[in-house]
Amino acid sequence: MTCPLCSADAPLQDFPVTGGPEGATAAICATCVEQIEGTPDPAHWRGLAGAIWSEEPAVQVLAARMLGRIDEVWANDLADQMYLDDETRAWVDNVETTLEHRDSNGALLARGDTVVLIKDLPVKGAGFTAKRGTAVRGISLVADNAGHIEGRVEGQRIVILTEFVKKK
What we know:
Pfam families: YjdM
Order of helices and strands: EEHHHHHEEEEEEEE
Protein name: Protein YjdM C-terminal domain-containing protein
Number of helices: 5
Organism: Thioclava indica
InterPro entries: YjdM_C
Radius of gyration: 17 Å
Number of domains: 2
Structural class: alpha+beta
Shape: elongated
Strand content: 15-25%
Number of strands: 10
Largest sheet: 3 strands, antiparallel
């Protein structure tokens, strides 16, 4: 069978798609499941160009959510091209998370928020220091760790500890 997300010819398994109709699932390959639950490899997700036009709402929801997690120009372009009806768009935005991400002052953080660094942070492996006062726009929440967010600083996608940011 062909995976509707990555177009791989592999065995498919039912994957629960949260935030929508009770018991909604999409049949996807094991590689996609690993990528969804972990850190996505942008090269794997090139098949989303076809998935965004799927007739299955659960597949569209997964495609939209993955495009939101991939910080590449082509992914942003695909997300801009994607058409979702109001009900499916609400499903995409209704990601059920059990973790609450809070800044250094205890303010609740949400995907897409802008935060400001409250301390100079050396960025390992990138060779620069993210300076205090730097605004990080359009953050992503790390699904399995309430103490981590992701954002772009000086063109690099980095993980930032929530204790070193304040919501703007």
